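Reopening this one. Same input as before:
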Amino acid sequence: MPDETQDDKPHVNIHAEVPAAAPGLSIWFFCGILMLAYGIVLVGEAGLEHFQLLGQHSPTTVLAHLHPTFWWGGCLFLFGAFYTLRFRPGKA
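Same output, byte for byte:
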């Protein structure tokens, strides 16, 4: 019977503990930041359109009186804030 101490092949210890990986950043955190940024831009644009601060006129569409830019901007802002806070780095 051969002596295993003389064996020069590497052996794998299947009972060795694997070090824990460092926690990474979630892709949803970056999606939240992007939605939050788009929401801020759209709400700002809706405010400029509504109060005509830069001299532009509101668009002449059929449903312009419903202010879709404001509502979409508000929705994106809320979803972006939720995802940014929910998946922020360092949250335990």
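So the earlier flakiness isn't reproducible anymore. For the record, Residues 25-92 form one domain.
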